[in-house]
Amino acid sequence: MEDIETHLPTMIQAARAAGALIKGQFRLGQDRSKCGKILEKGPDHPVTQADLEANEAIRNLLMASTPDYGWLSEETADSQDRLHKQRVWIVDPLDGTKEFIQGFPEFAVSIALVEEGRPVCACLYNPAKEELFTAIAGKGSRKNDRPIQTSRTTQLKHAVCLTSRSETSRGEWEPFKDEFTLKTTGSIAYKLALLASGAADFTFTLTPKNEWDVAAGILLVLEAHGQVTDKMGMRISFNQPSPNLSAILSSNGQLHPALLRRLASVPLNLDRRATQPSTIATT
Asked: Domain range for residue 134?
C-alpha cells in the first residue's frame, strides 16, 4: 500500500490529457445530438469520439507505467485477465456522455486504482469546470488540492439529494419530491464528487450502473467521511466477473441509516441497457 500514492501524479496527468480532448469537443449550452458523430451502444446509451479518444489517452499513459495491472473501462472490450490481477485500473473516460452531448458541464473523467476489490486511489476531473478531485485510501479527499469532507446534515427532510437527469425525466424521482430537496445533476461520478465536497447531502440510484461509473467517486466519498453501500447496506466490491451493480446509495454518513430504511421497500428500476454487453469476453 505504501506505493499507492506514487500513482496519483500519472492518474492526474491522464485525467487532464483526456479532459483536454473532451473539452476541445464540448460546446457549452449547445445540443450536439444531431451532429451525426454519435453512436448508440445500446438503448439510451450514446458514445462519442471524445469518449473513445479519452479512453485511448488514459490507457496509453496508465498501462505504460503499470503493464502488469488489470484494466476495466467502459470503452474497452472486457477480458477475464483482470480477474487474476491484484491491482486493476477501473476507468470511465467520460461519465455523463449525454450531458456532454447536450451542452451541460456536468460530466467527468473517472479513474480509480482498485486493489483486491477496493478502490485505493482515485482521480476525477471535470474539464468544463476545471474541478480536480483526488483521494488516497487513508489520506482523505481533495478538490483542486484542498481537503474536502461531506456535509453534516442529520435529517432527510432538511437534506439536498442529487438526482439523475434521465431518471427525473422518466418520473422515477416523483415519489420523493416532497420528502427532501431534489437537485438534478448529470453523471453519477460527478454527483459522488460533489457529495464528497459537501455540495449536497446524499445521492442514490436504483437503476443499474457499472463499476467504472462509481469506482473513483466511491473512494472520494469514503475518504471525505461519507458512506456508500448497495441497497441492502453492503459494501460494494470491485473487479467482479460482471461489472454490473444493481444500486448505489451514497450519503454523508449521518443520513445513511434513514436512507436505507426509506428505500428498503422501494423496488429496483429496470436495466435500460439490456443490449449492452456486460459479461467478460472470452478471448
From this structure: 4-148
